[in-house]
């Protein structure tokens, strides 16, 4: 019996070694000239965003070489095309895919093969934890909840916070990021109340908030819901003059401020108005592709510029590129874009609306 177990163990060991050899990076599989692999979906539902991501990257790369691969917005197809990109075409770097559902399996293959992957649009926060070859680009929009949490704890010194949020993936994701940062900084989320997006009847949530008697409330709401929420705050007398409502960028739109300023005594919100305005990029994109770029195009462009910056600084192969990216996570290929979230927190501006006047706080 022991003899057969030993034979079985040797077979498994040799099999694992073979697998490891198959996925280990071979220098001869990599092109001598740095080559980028762009992974996007052409599946009808995501085709427009996929084409924007692709064209943003191509614009950023300029004359540098690139191959484009269709993930089909399907995890299995994404694995097949990234294998082709890495093992047959010898790409130096992967940019993409557009979606988290395909970025995760692609990241696993890239990590095992030792090929750096730059994700400009996937929303899965844990993506870089897959391994040292996997990187995620961030913009101020990715860190506005974190920046607001810093203000609540470090500047306003409010440590007990209630949350009212839309009962959907949008609201839950923002609430998760904000709450996690509040607790990391020593604060406490005392209550979380949900409302149905688009609903005009928030009586139950309003009474619950009033009973909670909290002077700091973070509200993650869709732009269209904010005026109704504000009026019901006043109708149910949820807060007094000492309470502060905290919110993200939607609360800072001038039309929205006009809708709620008579109902809420004090609102503090983030602003990203200085970001995303790159007239040179927009003009170049429009001129070359005859359409207005989306955020996906801009983030793809930023990822390509980071790749070019690395190559210009000697990152001529996969290993050198990974080393350069790891050593330069705080570098911004474009203003307000970086691989480090912490680098961007200070770029988010905080405003307040108090007694009908808008003022900058930081």
Can you give a write-up of this model?
Pfam families: Peripla_BP_6. Belongs to the leucine-binding protein family. This is Leucine-binding protein domain-containing protein. By secondary structure, the protein is of the alpha/beta class. It folds into two domains: about 25-140 and about 280-330, Response regulator (Rossmann fold); about 145-275 and about 345-360, Response regulator (Rossmann fold, 3-Layer(aba) Sandwich). The protein contains 13 helices and twelve strands. It has helices at about 1-25, 45-60, 75-90, 100-115, 140-155, 170-185, 205-210, 225-235, 255-260, 280-290, 295-310, 320-325, 340-345, and strands at about 35-40, 65-70, 95, 115-120, 135, 160-165, 190-195, 215-220, 245, 265-270, 350-355, 355-360. Strands 7-6-8-9-10-11-12 form a seven-stranded mixed sheet, with helices on both faces. The protein has a five-stranded parallel sheet with strand order 2-1-3-4-5, with helices on both faces. Helix 6 (about 170-185) links the parallel strand 6 (about 160-165) and strand 7. Helix 3 (about 75-90) packs parallel to helix 4. The longest helix has 22 residues, at about 1-25. It is elongated, with a radius of gyration of 24 Å. The model is unreliable at about 1-25 (pLDDT under 50).
């Amino acid at each position: 019996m022991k003899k057969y177990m030993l034979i079985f163990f040797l077979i498994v060991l040799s099999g694992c070694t073979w697998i490891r050899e198959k996925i280990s990076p071979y220098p001869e599989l990599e092109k001598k000239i740095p080559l980028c692999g762009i992974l996007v979906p052409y599946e009808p539902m995501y085709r427009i965003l996929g084409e924007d991501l692709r064209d943003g990257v191509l614009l950023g790369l300029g004359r540098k070489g690139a191959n484009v691969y269709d993930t089909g917005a399907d995890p299995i197809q994404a694995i097949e095309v990234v294998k082709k990109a890495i093992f047959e075409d010898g790409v130096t770097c992967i940019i993409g895919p557009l979606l988290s559902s395909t970025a995760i399996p692609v990241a696993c293959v890239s990590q095992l093969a030792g090929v750096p992957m730059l994700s400009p649009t996937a929303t899965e926060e844990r993506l870089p934890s897959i391994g040292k070859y996997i990187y995620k680009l961030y913009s101020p929009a990715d860190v506005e909840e974190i920046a607001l949490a810093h203000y609540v704890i470090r500047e306003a010194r409010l440590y007990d916070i209630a949350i009212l949020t839309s009962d959907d993936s949008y609201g839950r994701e923002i609430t998760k990021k904000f709450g996690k940062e509040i607790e990391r900084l020593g604060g406490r989320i005392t209550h979380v109340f949900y409302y149905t997006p688009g609903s005009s009847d928030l009586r139950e949530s309003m009474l619950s908030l009033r009973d909670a008697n909290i002077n700091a409330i973070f509200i993650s709401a869709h732009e269209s819901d904010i005026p109704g929420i504000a009026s019901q705050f006043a109708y149910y007398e949820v807060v007094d003059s000492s309470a502060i409502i905290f919110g993200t960028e939607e609360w800072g739109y001038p039309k929205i401020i006009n809708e709620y300023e008579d109902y809420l005594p004090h609102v503090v919100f983030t602003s990203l108005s200085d970001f995303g305005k790159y007239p040179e990029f927009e003009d170049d994109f429009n001129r070359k592709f005859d359409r207005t770029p989306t955020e996906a195009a801009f983030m793809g462009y930023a990822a390509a510029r980071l790749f070019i910056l690395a190559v210009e600084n000697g990152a001529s192969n996969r290993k050198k590129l990974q080393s350069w990216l790891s050593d330069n996570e705080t570098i911004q290929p474009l203003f307000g874009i970086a691989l480090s979230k912490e680098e961007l927190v200070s770029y988010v501006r905080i405003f307040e609306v108090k007694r009908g006047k808008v003022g900058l706080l930081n």
